[in-house]
Amino acid sequence: MIAYNTAVVLAGVSLLGASAGLVGSFAVLRRRALLGDALAHAAFPGICLAFLALERRSLPAMLAGAFISGIVGVGIIIGLRRATRTKEDAALGIVLSVFFGIGLALSRMIQNRSASGSRAGLDSYIFGSAATMRIADLWWIAGVAVLCVAVVLLLYKEFKLVAFDMGFARVQGWPAGKLDWLLMGLIAVTVVVGLPAAGALLIAAMLILPATAARFWTDRLGMMLVLSALLGASTAAVGALVSAKFDGLPTGPTIVLAGAATFLSSALFARRRGGVARWLAQHRFRRRLEAQGLLRRLYELTEAELPLRAAVPQSELAKRASIAPGAVRRAVRHGWVVLEPGGQLRLTEPGLRLASRIVRGYRLWQLFLVEYADQQGSFAELDVETVDDDLPAAVIERFEARLAAEGRLPGQVAAGSKGAS
Amino acid sequence: MSGFEWADVDWNQAAWTIAVAAACSVSCALLGCYLVLRRMSLLGDAISHAILPGIAAAFWFGGTTASLPMFLGAVTAGILTAVFTEAVQRAGNVPEDAGMGVVYTSLFALGVVMIARLASGRVDLDPDCVLYGRIEQVVLDNFKLGGLAIPWALLPPLATLAATLLFVAVFWKELKLASFDPALATAMGLSAAVVHYLLMAMVAVVSVAAFNVAGSILVVAMLIVPAAAAHLLTDRLGVMLLLAVVLALIASIFGYFGAVWLNTVVAGMMAAVLGIEFALAACFAPRHGLVSRTWRRLSLSLRIVSEDIIAIVYRAEERQHELTSGVDRSTCLQAGGGGWIARFALLRLRRSGAIIESADGLVQLTDAGRIAAQSLVRSHRLWEAYLGEHFDLPLDHLHEPAERLEHYIGPKLQERLASELARPGVDPHGKEIPPG
């Protein structure tokens, strides 16, 4: 049985994490990630001003103040970029630091002025404190989450276009500018309702981390949105639980650390784009090239004696080309080559079939590169084993005729033999 | 708030606090100029956030703030930020800003959590000092030198200030070249990457020194704001550095007294003063400010509209040879594009005595106005003649470009056009070109 308070907190941060993950995906794709950060920092003085004006804590007033001052900050950034020579990066830094500095000055002023008993609790808006979340905060967050989901579902196609190709959206006649501002508005309301729980300093990370982590797993927007929302919700819940468990751990940073852990594991272990997968793919590719090199060299050295499969001393092979350590061992294991006593290497029957295929592909590519030197850029991955898929049949036929005339066409082209993987 | 009296100011504390703030903010401002010019402000922002775990770790091992391990830890964290950002951006296929956001928010969160866990119960490091720094306490801990009680906290900022000055002086040429033309710098055998990472390391060093007294958010303000304001005020690098230093000094002084006056933190007030400085520069900078640019644009459109108005009256006079009645006021306004600029232009023309307006709303040129209009129409028709002579354009395509360019052809260009065309009498439409 979870305590009522804990349930409220968990529901609140999970919903917040989900909506931040959802709109954060668009923010990241639209290059608005750091604008979200600036917005969050810029919202802080609005909270303080609302408190100063009302002389008491009023959640709606503070959220309204935060929203207004955040939007003013974003407006200043956009205005500076358009109207002055100040570049966007500097404008972001200026608004972020100056607004937050003003907020700090205001909050300290309020604290120093009021009696020591009512510290006004403005500090909790900086680092965030989910533990104090009440049912009212939950309603706000739930409302915003519903709003975000509804808007994204309704305008999915439009947002997709704006996120990936603003220029095209405009040319197609969509109100791209308005859609962009609507997206900005969604980011703003999400950031603002999240301020009490996650804090101004790090709420932007809740926009950025789940989205970039999700990006590692998929290339499809719909999938990325779902994944990012799920990751956002779960990391926020974990972060909030951990922060509640250990004394003195502020909620915002703890959630961000949970998000960072998710990001790091995605970056390492994602299926195709993760670091491990990329390293493995690279490794396999290198092994394949080594095997191809070895078989081709063996074939070339014994080509004159064919169809007899002659033996080559390993020392002879080493003289002609650098053979990667272990390549011979692996070729023996695959059954392409036998290592005879005295260090002699001899191609096996299947080894010869494979080697013929490789040498044929190699020579076809050579001819292709000589004849169509201007087009080699469009064949980024030259693989001698897939030459039949990559080049037009007519070209292959012509090249084969040429090789045959020179007596250089490997004779036993056996289809269906296993690749050198 | 209103309890501020000059008599209450503790001048000893004020002087030392301002000295520490100034030493920090001047070093930041100097390096910030290069960040702003190279459009790397965000990397500065990211580094100043990301040094936090380095500071926390060094604090864990060294036990003090502003020690050598702390500098090393923070510089490592700073350089790692630059490296990681690039790696995330490339591997994750996300925009640069998202990559940066991932790295620095994560490192900053790590730093905050470390400090929150490590520093519970200790006075010299807590989450609050991440925000505000401890500049208010610098005078408490000092040593005596020749009768002066010098705060220990002044030494690291002074050392970094000296290092920054040395860095800028020694690498002046390299930094300048790498800032404005990295490609040329590389072609000249100067490694832009080395300059880049040296600059990042210096930013990290300065951020650590400034962090200790002012907190991490203000470091961003001190790095970027004076430099961006100075960039609006000048086009010369040397002047920009000097202006940034002056702005940083002003912010240190006013920030301190503002904080005393409002009973709040120095760090926040310094950021606020820097913000005001930047706002003033953005509005009133002589060349790049909003007000001066708007003013220049307005006066240009006013001149063009005025010229268009007198030109239309001149043409009407020309058509009717001896004009007695003048041109309708509404026609004049229409020639000026309508709107308030046209009305204001008409008013100004009347005031300056270029036109007279009769009671029934007819506009006539005075002699002075006629001379000005004649020169403009001369420019217009000379340009038409020139276009007709040198470009194979149909007749109905000549008027439009001439209508635009006539406002920018001065007497010198008129003279050259006239002599080039062997002093033509008429334009391609057969209209007389008035004498200059």
Radius of gyration of chain A, in angstroms, nearest whole number: 32 Å
Helices of chain A, by number, come to 18
Terminal CA distance of chain B reads: 69 Å
Q: Distance between the terminal alpha carbons of chain A, to the nearest Å?
A: 55 Å
What features would you describe in this structure?
The complex is a heterodimer of chains A (421) and B (436). Chain A has 421 residues and is mainly α. Chain A is built from 18 helices and three strands. Chain A has a three-stranded antiparallel β-sheet with strand order 1-3-2. In chain A, strand 2 and strand 3 (344-347) form a beta hairpin. Chain A is elongated. By secondary structure, chain B is mostly helical. Chain B is built from 18 helices and five strands. Chain B has helices at 11-37, 41-62, 68-92, 96-118, 127-132, 155-170, 172-180, 182-187, 192-214, 216-233, 237-262, 266-284, 290-320, 329-335, 339-351, 367-390, 399-405, 411-420, and strands at residues 142-145, 148-151, 327-328, 355-357, 362-365. In chain B, a hairpin with a 2-residue loop joins strand 1 (142-145) and strand 2 (148-151). Classes of the chains: A mainly alpha (421), B mainly alpha (436).
Write the layout of secondary structure elements.
The complex is a heterodimer of chains A (421) and B (436).
Chain A: H1 4-29, H2 33-54, H3 59-83, H4 88-113, H5 124-127, H6 135-154, H7 156-164, H8 166-171, H9 176-198, H10 203-215, H11 221-245, H12 251-269, H13 275-302, E1 311-313, H14 314-320, H15 327-334, E2 337-340, E3 344-347, H16 349-371, H17 387-390, H18 393-405
Antiparallel strand pairs in A: 1-3, 2-3
Helix pairs in contact in A: 1-6, 1-9, 1-10, 1-11, 2-3, 2-4, 2-9, 2-10, 3-4, 3-9, 6-9, 10-11, 10-12, 11-12, 13-15, 13-16, 16-18
Chain B: H1 11-37, H2 41-62, H3 68-92, H4 96-118, H5 127-132, E1 142-145, E2 148-151, H6 155-170, H7 172-180, H8 182-187, H9 192-214, H10 216-233, H11 237-262, H12 266-284, H13 290-320, E3 327-328, H14 329-335, H15 339-351, E4 355-357, E5 362-365, H16 367-390, H17 399-405, H18 411-420
Antiparallel strand pairs in B: 1-2, 3-5, 4-5
